[in-house]
Amino acid sequence: MDTVDKPKVAAELKSDRKIAEEDKKKAEEAVTALFSLDYDLKPFYEMVKDDKIMACLTRRLWGLKSPTTQPFLKCWWIQSLSIRFH
Asked: How many domains does one find in the chain?
């Protein structure tokens, strides 16, 4: 089961041509970077657990990660593959 602590992200690549394995890997890396999927929030949670305000915010926003922006060309490349998120 997908949870905040163990989320699942799915993306679908579409193209009129066969999508090369290298392009699939690049798309996976781009999605991982865009949504900060490799960023471990546990150290942050540990750091703020004793702060009343931050602990309250952390409980309300548990698992929320700020998306990162990609250079224009990488975003264009992703769009050109017509990635559709589920």
From this structure: 1
Give 58-82 pLDDT, tens digit per residue. Answer: 888 888 877 666 554 455 555 555 5
Q: Rounded CA gap, 21 and 16, in Å?
A: 15
Q: Specify whether the CB–CB gap between 34 and 67 falls below 8 A.
A: yes
- Decide: 9 and 28 in contact? Cβ < 8 Å: no
Angle subtended at Cα 30 by Cα 60 and Cα 15, rounded to the nearest 5 degrees: 120
**Residue 41 neighbours by CB under 8 Å, 6+ apart:** 63, 65
pTM: 0.59
- In-domain check, residue 18: yes
Cα–Cα distance between 27 and 32 in angstroms, integer? 8
